[in-house]
Specification:
Blueprint lengths: L18 H13 L7 H4 L15 H5 L9 H42 L2 H4 L1 H17 L1 E6 L5 E8 L5 E6 L2 E6 L3 E6 L14 E6 L4 E5 L3 H17 L2
Antiparallel strand pairs: 1-2, 1-7, 2-3, 3-4, 5-6, 6-7
Length: 236
Amino acid sequence: MWPFLGSSACCSVQVCRTPEQVAANGLLASQAPSLSSSPAKRGAVSSTSSPVAAHPGADAVGSKVSPLPLSTKEVDKLHSVETASIASTTKNSTSRSAYSAASSVGSEFINEQIPRHQRDVAKIQSQMKSFVKGMVRGREMNVISVDGQLRACTCSFDRKLRNYNIVISKETRSIPLSKFREVFQAVEPEDIATPLDELCATFVLDSGECLSFRFKDVPERENFAMCLQIIVDGHQ
């Protein structure tokens, strides 16, 4: 039956139910838990909100799930995993440090084995350039006689660097650089009659003759002997 309440009022529809339907609905209502029966059953539903049927898993989803307690064995296992990660990083870092240290030691060893004039090529080239330029122009030096007296002289190279020229009292002696055998420093060679000291440099000719010169200091002596030896080696 669908009764009409009036044309001027809002429409309202009411379903007429049979007595069997009313009884069935009453039975279901008595068996279903009331949402407003107790606060515990209401759960997280607010008292101001309209009653809504809660899903069985709503409490679990809405609230934080507390972590399950781990056993001692599981905790130790977790710590082992974390320690292993840190140890792996530390080990890799240690390996890199060891490699870097080994590389540094290797470089130092190689540098010790390489002759000094090979490590300082640029410096040697600069010294050689100055030495050759000075010797081509002529260099004032002191030659030592067998009795130990110093005599002033002028030493020079020809422009093709083939001869070593010595001028003493306007007398010139020209010695081919190919005749030079070796250049000694300080008190060597020890088996010659000329008295030598730390400021001396002596070159030996292939005939066995020795000519010794004395310098004002050790660095000048070292520079002269080194540069002359390089030129002599180039003529061998």
